[in-house]
Design a protein that fits this description.
alpha/beta, Leucine-rich repeat, LRR (right-handed beta-alpha superhelix), Phosphorylase Kinase, domain 1, Transferase(Phosphotransferase), domain 1, four-stranded parallel sheet, 15% strand, protein serine/threonine kinase activity, ATP-binding
Length: 391
């Protein structure tokens, strides 16, 4: 492990995991006092843990798992108030597992794979009673959720390895990953190890039992496209309703930065009883709404095309749809005004006039083509705007 790294006084995060490193953990690692994260796992480090590590007052995470470290685990780690996660598993530690502070309550899996490390003895009975209380409480909670799940209907569009109660168990505060005007998005970890996104809709609208909605949702359940988030199914009861729209917040990036559209193509069934596909309140998000909505109060595929054009302009300009251009001016109006004032207008000049100055190294042809598509999508009149299929 190169000693020069620890001369970086402002170093906050150190991740050397899975690099086949050998040798001992250097004692001068503590000289980088601002460290909050250390991951040395999956190497071939040996020797004892230097006690100087316990002096890192800002350290939140320490992962030393899957090495050949030996000796005793310093009990002072349990007294570090900043620490939230420690992993000592799969080493050659020996002696009695320390019980100071945090160390007493860490999961046994974080000490697993150390055959010479003696397990906890004194606190065992207290921990067993606490675990029994947790299990009992969890059992009652599961029974309650099961009773609630019987009032819901789960419609799946493919064979799934989870049930209604697995989804409902994830609808709690700590799993929230996003909120919007239409609802709340939760991260759900299913028993098969897969993670799903669960959108709980809070807007008022007509029922999921509406014939038009059911036809739309069944169509979406059959869509298979690499850049569209797959709709696995939906839960409904008599109060369930839906309102989804095209905007940048609904476009998700995977680990390779490939875009995947969520909430794709759902008709805005959000209306008063007796009003056929006519909106009684604003559908979509401000800044993405097609201008014809103001006088027709109707939405269709071309409304989503307009929203898609706004998303493209966001990418090109690096600006938000509203809030940066003055009162009553959105990104579309700003782009039109900026490009109309050019002395020598052209597609290339127009694109360069509004492009984000932070972008570099892009092909001009690609930028111009993307800009032209965006401007076609945000045409003033919906009659001049293509549909999704035409685009």
């Amino acid at each position: 492990m190169p000693a020069e790294v620890f001369n970086l006084k402002k170093l906050l995060k150190l991740n050397f995991s899975a690099n086949s490193l050998t040798g001992q953990i250097p004692v001068f690692i503590a000289s980088t006092s601002r460290l909050t994260f250390i991951d040395l796992s999956r190497n071939s480090l040996y020797g004892v843990i230097p006690s100087s590590l316990c002096g890192l007052q800002n350290l939140n995470v320490l992962n030393l798992s899957r090495n050949h470290l030996d000796g005793a685990i310093p009990g002072d780690f349990g007294l570090m108030k900043s620490l939230t996660l420690l992993d000592f598993s799969y080493n050659d530690f020996s002696g009695i597992r320390p019980t100071t502070g945090l160390l007493e309550y860490l999961d046994d899996r974080l000490f697993a794979g150390n055959p010479n490390l003696c397990p906890l003895i004194a606190p065992f009975a207290r921990r067993l009673r606490a675990r029994h209380r947790v299990l009992t409480r969890g059992m009652h909670q599961r029974r309650h959720r099961l009773a609630i799940s019987r009032t819901w209907k789960f419609t799946a569009f493919q064979r799934l390895d989870f049930r209604t109660e697995n989804v409902l168990e994830c609808l709690n505060e700590e799993n929230i990953i996003g909120k919007g005007g239409a609802g709340i998005v939760y991260r759900g970890s299913m028993p098969n190890g897969n993670d799903i996104a669960i959108k709980r809709l809070t807007g008022r609208g007509n029922s999921c039992h509406d014939h038009g909605f059911m036809a739309e949702i069944q169509t979406l359940g059959r869509i298979r496209h690499r850049n569209i988030v797959r709709l696995l199914g939906y839960l409904s009861n008599k109060d369930t309703n839906l309102l989804l729209d095209v905007k940048s917040n609904n476009i998700l990036l995977d680990s390779d930065y490939e875009a995947h559209v969520a909430d794709f193509g759902l008709a805005k069934f959000f209306h008063d009883a007796g009003a056929s596909e006519c909106m009684s309140s604003i559908a979509g998000s401000y800044g993405y709404i097609a201008p014809e909505y103001a006088y027709t109060l109707k939405v269709d595929q071309k409304s989503d095309v307009y929203s898609f054009g706004v998303v493209l302009l966001e990418l090109i300009t690096g600006r938000k749809p509203v809030g940066e251009f003055g009162e009553g001016v959105d990104i579309v109006r700003w782009v039109r005004k900026t490009t109309s004032e050019l002395a020598h207008p052209s597609d290339a000049a127009s694109a360069l006039a509004v492009v984000d100055s932070r972008l570099t190294g892009y092909p001009l042809t690609g930028l111009v083509n993307m800009f032209k598509i965006a401007m076609v999508c945000v045409e003033d009149e919906s009659s001049a705007r293509p549909t999704m299929r035409e685009k």
